[in-house]
Amino acid sequence: MDRPTTNPVATSRKPGRPRSAATPDAIRRAAESLFAERGFSHTSVRDIATLACSDPAVVIRHFGSKEKLFLEVVTVDPQFRGLVKGPLPTLGRQILQRLLEADGSTLRLHATLLGALDRTEVRRYLEQSTAQHITDPLAARLLGPDAEVRARLIAAQIGGLLMSICLFDDTPTQLLTAKALDYYADAIQALIDGPNPAPE
């Protein structure tokens, strides 16, 4: 007597779960939306998984941790890339124009990053991105003495401006006036130009 053939049984799904497994792209989109809306500390892996119609274990399997997922979707590299390229005599003004571009994307991303600076991975990322896109290329271009020190001070000016605008409610209006931006552009430009030679 022939034994009945057994057919493989499909894995059961939880009610309401879509047939297709959650993809990394769906998780990225959910994470980007929630981090921008709530910040790092108020967004959980479960929140991301729920919005992506997935499971927290799937999120961790794809990305390793909430911090790693955060740094994949919240990055200032595109905004910082090429920031210090251009003619040195007008670079101070150009840097400000790029940082404070009309769509405000750099400010939004920086504000989201600042909300997670208590995380070592996030601090390390911001330090590395600043060195890669601002400090190192500037130090290689600046003429005159103390190029590396001046490059670091310019990076500090950029970081300070972004932090002040993003974190303090009463400062953005004051800092974004035309006169304030003129002062700031001149201060950055003074470090780019370097010290004037002493008169003989």
Describe, in plain words, how this protein is organized in 3D:
This protein is mostly helical. It is built from 11 helices and no strands. It has helices at 24-38, 45-51, 56-63, 66-73, 77-80, 91-99, 105-114, 120-141, 147-167, 172-175, 178-193. Helix 1 (24-38) packs across helix 2, helix 1 crosses helix 4 (66-73) and helix 7 packs across helix 9. The longest helix is centred in the middle third of the chain and has 22 residues, at 120-141. It starts with 23 loop residues before the first helix and ends in a 7-residue tail after the last helix. Residues 1-24 are annotated as: Disordered. It holds the Pfam family TetR_C_16.
Attribute tags:
mainly alpha; 200 residues; 0% strand; disordered N terminus
Q: Pairing-aware structural class of the strands and helices?
A: mainly alpha
> Topology as H/E string?
HHHHHHHHHHH
What's the tally of helices?
Answer: 11
How many E-type strands?
0
Beta strand %? under 5%
User: Sheet with the most strands?
Assistant: none
The parts where pLDDT drops under 50 for at least 5 residues are 1-22
Helix content: 55-70%
The coarse silhouette is: elongated
Span between N and C termini?
112 Å
CA-atom Rg in angstroms? 24 Å
> What is the overall pLDDT average?
83
